[in-house]
Amino acid sequence: MSRGSRLSTIEVGGFRLGRAGIANVTCATCAGGGERYVGVVKDVVVIGGGVVGCAIARALTHYRIDVALVEREVEVGFGTSKANSGIIHAGHHTTPGTVKGELVWRGNQMWQDLANELGFGFFQNGDLTIAFDEDELLTLETIESIGKERGVTGLELWGPDRIHREEPNVSKEALAALHGPTAAVVNPYEACFALIDDAVDNGLQLLVGRPVTAITPEGSHLVVHVGDEHIATRCVINAAGLYADRVCRMVGIELPIRARKGEEYLLDKRLSGIVRRTIFPCPTPTSKGILVIPTYDGTIMVGPTAELVDDKEDLSTTSAGAAHVFEMAQRLVPGISERDCIAEFAGLRAVAPDDDFVIGATRVPGFINAAGVQSPGLTAAPAIAEEIVALIADGGLDLSPKPDLKSPAPRPVRVSELGLSELEQLVFSDNRYAHIVCRCEMVTEGEIADAIERGARTLDGVKFRTRAGMGRCQGGFCTSRCMQLLSDAHDVPIHDITKRGPGTWVVCEREERT
Amino acid sequence: MTRLAIRYDVVIVGGGPGGMSAAIGALEAGADRVLIVDREIELGGILNQCIHNGFGLHHFGEELTGPEYASRLIEELLDHRIDVATDSYVLDVDADRTLTVASPSTGITRVQAGAVVLAMGARERTRGAIRIPGSRPSGIMTAGLAQKFVNQLGYLPGRRAVILGSGDIGLIMARRLALEDVEVHGVYELMPHANGLTRNIVQCLHDFDIPLHLSTTVVGIEGSRRLERVAVAPVDENFEPDLARATEIECDTLLVSIGLIPENELSAKLGLRMDPTTGGPVVSSTMETSRDGVFAAGNVVHIHDLVDFVSQEALLAGRCAGEFATGRSRPADNIRLLAGANVASIVPHTISSDREHVVYLRVRRSMEKSWLRLGEVYEKRLRYVVPAEMVSLKVRPRFLENFHGDALKIDIVPREEPGGDDE
Ligand SMILES: Cc1cc2nc3c(=O)[nH]c(=O)nc-3n(C[C@H](O)[C@H](O)[C@H](O)COP(=O)(O)OP(=O)(O)OC[C@H]3O[C@@H](n4cnc5c(N)ncnc54)[C@H](O)[C@@H]3O)c2cc1C
Ligand SMILES: Cc1cc2nc3c(=O)[nH]c(=O)nc-3n(C[C@H](O)[C@H](O)[C@H](O)COP(=O)(O)OP(=O)(O)OC[C@H]3O[C@@H](n4cnc5c(N)ncnc54)[C@H](O)[C@@H]3O)c2cc1C
Q1: Both B143 and B253 in a single domain?
Q2: ipTM exceeding 0.95?
Q3: Would you call B333 an interface residue with chain A, using a CB distance cutoff of 8 Å?
């Protein structure tokens, strides 16, 4: 197997994983003291089902080992991995000499294959970093040389004529631009779903809606507490994003993680096509700045801001954030207007000390971090997974390839992408594909039923898997229909269907009056 | 389920009051193969969830509920031979008037139409359109969706509600929720005037002691999972909120009622010329769009506050579509209508000097006493105009007898002198 090049920046402390077999341990920390735990020892438990956890889990299921992934939210990808810019960075923007800088270009090169294999939305649209004056042009030249040194292909400086021929709606004030053809856009949540679906098909045990509450070392194993359930394992991968600090604390390791918020604003389809490439301003030492992003689905998105916040649940958007985003976006692409905003959201980057990823073994045997994965963590995720696989092999886990690997399930059908004759054929075999449920994004009952079958259990789960509710009317039309389909499929009453898990109820029962 | 024929004289997209009235018009005009397509399982459009009364005073001369109004139209249709395809979605309309219809019972079908009437209605503007800062918990929905939950599905959107926007749906829902014992804290309106009909302010808010806060808006949303509270603040004349005076309201539900937008996905695909002031297609006095044989009526053209006007407009559209499909036509329009300073929108966009027309307009600003002026050729006293209530003007051929220009400006201007009889 190819494990890619080992990271030069990661220190690999020699560590040995516990033995395989049956665990027969007494769990001292549990209430009642001394609850006995007997069970098959997992080889690896991944904590956190963001894109990093999903990529790791998927990579591990290619080997003959026993792997579980535990996710706190009811569906995977519901943390930071669904709330970002969705860019697979070209590879030249990230600071050299950092772990993230090393992994970004490696990650970039892996996405095309991953997308081909798993069939999620991926489009290599390229990026343009704009300079408005001579100073900024100097910065572009520096970035270009960083990229070239790293091996990033196709980088090219464009003058005003080329810029305006290729991207006529970019500001006429632009003096120069650095073109990075290797940049791409993905639907990040779709990627998470595709990774996890494939992992589950290949034997991953997936536990969702259940946080890990404690980890206790028991002999040569670690026992992971998931509510009342205990899972003994030889190895824990901490991919808990913003809460990787809590997970670290469970084994007595201090790793402060702070949250850096990024607000993003989605614009009406009217503006689709206003740019083809992702447009970056010239970066400053502290920030990549506000970007204009043609998302995979064609919607234009502008953002993200970058601001440290104290509350790790603070996903609020702010007036100041919006004002900043639109002002900066308009500088790059003057045709963009606040009036076209159809939705907004915020995501939180998990920031570790030194502003870098923390990937590697720790002083606790069997406990490995994939933490502090801030931007460009989406891009780097497949490369991080490779690193983790290599680390585990170093730790002594026998990684022989699984002989009976299942090939990935076909990509879910998207009716909006089909030609009429293809649709006719599909409808012929399943008439639910002729029943339009979401009018803005043209999503049919067939697609929603398929998403539910693949694991969607909430409105957001349906939305992120199918786009139902993501369009102009923001679910005004389809919400009740999607709830009905979820209710029928899971055989629960409508008022038990939530937006995204416990506490996010949508409607309640009417009080019967006498 | 109707098996669709391959060819119809007139195909109507949408089976709300607009679509049904257009069908009646088309039949009256002598079209004998008429089809209505609607994506819902029943005809009636938005009326089916409007179980309150206040419909039909003009058109039927009595006060009906939404579903009653719809069933009157359905009964009229039953007197004729007409095809109805419900649970059927019009995916596409070509320039040569071929429609692609998707339905679970008939699959994908193509039908050719002599004339098409677009009557797709409208959709609601959402929270995103006005960008309220804050978190994104559950418990925020448009008033129309809440109305559907309560009236059609039998669920409540929550137990303690704040309503943003004084559009008619919001007002109606304030009362509806109060009747269900939901705590309604108030209706908050950005503008210095209400956006709904006066009668709704009285009957839905005053009669239920629900406060209406004008020049006030929601400036913050809190709650990481379900909505926990909203912050509201007064705004100045430039609509800038005064955050120092913001107050918080504990609630689990925020209903957004900030207006409707014509549903024009199909119009855009067809490449129709659109009017940015109405959000709908530009139409002639026969309600024909910029494509030959494609007509439009109802909320898809401009947002109506009264269903009665939808029916009147759609009857005309249907008649003209029927005439077109059977090879007849009316003299083409020869006068353009232009909006004056206090006129926000006008429908239709052009008229013809040889016949009578009803022109609908909306004002920008409220005015106590005013003149409605049609160029130099006609003027009429108005007692009170508000943006929330559409103004209609009958343009008679005799007004235009001595007019030889090709454009007329319509405006509503202040009337200083003590007025005589108002119309
Ligand atoms: C605004 C913004 C824009 C960005 N744009 C880009 C971009 O364009 N390109 C790019 O490459 N990167 C981008 N990033 C970065 C990228 O989104 C992240 O690096 C990536 O999503 C991190 O993935 P993750 O799996 O580490 O974290 P997450 O997706 O947050 O996953 C962690 C998971 O762990 C779970 N968890 C936490 N605690 C527990 C527990 N105790 N038990 C079980 N589960 C637990 C959480 O519920 C969560 O699902 C952006 C980030 C932000 C905020
Ligand atoms: C809450 C509320 C309260 C109201 N109160 C009053 C009142 O008290 N008095 C009054 O007179 N008026 C009232 N109105 C206004 C009146 O009901 C509307 O103006 C009128 O219903 C609009 O009619 P329409 O036919 O244009 O649209 P709709 O009734 O919206 O009908 C459009 C139809 O087209 C269908 N459709 C759309 N696209 C497609 C497609 N591609 N394929 C197939 N079918 C499609 C839709 O499903 C729908 O059934 C109220 C409206 C609302 C929403």
Answers
A1: yes
A2: no
A3: no
A chain contacts of residue B155, beta-carbon cutoff 8 Å: 494-495, 507-510
Residues of B with CB below 8 A from A266's CB? 128
Residue reference for tokens 């938005």: B46
Packing angle, helices A188-201 and A99-118, rounded to 10? 70
CATH 3.90.550.10 for the A10-80+189-257+355-394 domain, yes or no: no
DSSP per residue, B166-227: -SHHHHHHHHHHHHTT-EEEEEE-SSSS-SS-HHHIIIIIGGGT--EETTEEEEEEE-SSB-
Q: Which domain holds residue B151?
A: 129-258
Q: How far is CA B14 from CA A301, B38, B86, B300, in A?
A: 32, 5, 9, 10
Q: pLDDT by residue (tens digit) across A454-509?
A: 889 999 999 999 999 988 788 888 999 999 999 999 999 999 999 999 999 999 99
Decide: B168 in ligand 2 pocket, CB within 6 A: yes
- On the question of pLDDT at A4 being above 80, the answer is no
Distance of CA A186 to the CA centre of its chain: 10
The CATH architecture that domain A127-181+258-351 belongs to is 2-Layer Sandwich (3.30)
A89 assigned to active site: yes
Query: Which residue in A342, A473, A485, A509 has the most chain B C-beta atoms within 10 A of its own C-beta, making it the best mutation to test that interface?
Result: A473
Q: pLDDT digits over A409-456, tens only? A: 888 999 999 999 999 999 999 999 999 999 888 999 999 999 999 889
The reported pTM is: 0.89
Mutate which of B36, B257, B307, B392 for ligand 2 pocket (most atoms within 8 A of beta carbon):
B307
Q: Cβ contact (<8 Å) for A476 and B126?
A: yes
Class of domain A415-496: mainly alpha
Interval A287-314: pLDDT, tens: 789 999 999 988 999 999 999 999 999 9
